[in-house]
Amino acid sequence: MAPSNEQKLDQIHQQRIDQIKKAALKVFAHRGIVGTKMSMIAAEAGISQGLSYRYFKSKEELFITLIQEAMEEANAAFQHVQQLPGTPLEQIKTLTQNIFDDSNKYPFLLIQHASVSDEVPAKAKQIIEHYSAKAWMEQLIPLFIKGQKLGEFCEGDPYKLLFCYMSVITGLMLQEKQTEGKNWSEDVDILMKILTK
């Protein structure tokens, strides 16, 4: 059965929203909220500025939408890490590869910007605070302890070791310009040496 006109319009509407969000994510990640204008997002999306306002009232509304989605996705990734196949070492390695995946680069940079900038909307700050990085780390600690018992990870305080590990990952992602866009997912084994025996 062919889709109705209403279904086609809904599909076009959703495609346009996705197109604008994808463009906005890239522009916000590079320029921050202060350095971004709706005209830049529209240009990146290949649409008129007027059309972008049909879908989002302001760049702030768009920014908040993107932060909510990015935080939900990051939260889900950490919650489901123990359901990944393999040993604890393999599960944390897979999580790390997923973090470095190109599709996660812009959401990560957006979250970092929202975490440290004073110019982001209060609602975005509230969303960031709702999903604490400490809670994400606590999702990994039982897995890390299990890996320590199996002899996969080095001895020591799991929280401190994981905190150092995640700090290195954050640093590498923020250094992308200095590393000429290097994709660290290919070198996760080097990073894993921080945690392994």
How would you describe what is shown here?
This protein is mostly helical. 71% of the residues lie in helices and 0% in strands. The protein contains 10 helices and no strands. It has helices spanning 5-31, 38-45, 49-55, 59-79, 88-100, 102-116, 122-130, 133-149, 158-174, 188-192. Helix 1 (5-31) packs across helix 6 and helix 4 runs parallel beside helix 7 (122-130). The radius of gyration is 19 Å and the shape is elongated. The N and C termini lie far apart (59 Å).
Short description:
Helices cover 71% and strands 0% of the residues.
Radius of gyration: 19 Å
Tell me the overall shape.
elongated
Distance between the termini: 59 Å
Q: Average pLDDT across residues?
A: 89
How many DSSP E strands?
A: 0
Compressed to H and E, one letter per element, the order equals HHHHHHHHHH
What class would the helix/strand composition place it in? mainly alpha
Secondary structure tally, helices: 10
What is the beta-strand fraction?
Answer: under 5%
Largest sheet: none
Classify the helix fraction into a percent range: over 70%
Low-confidence stretches: none
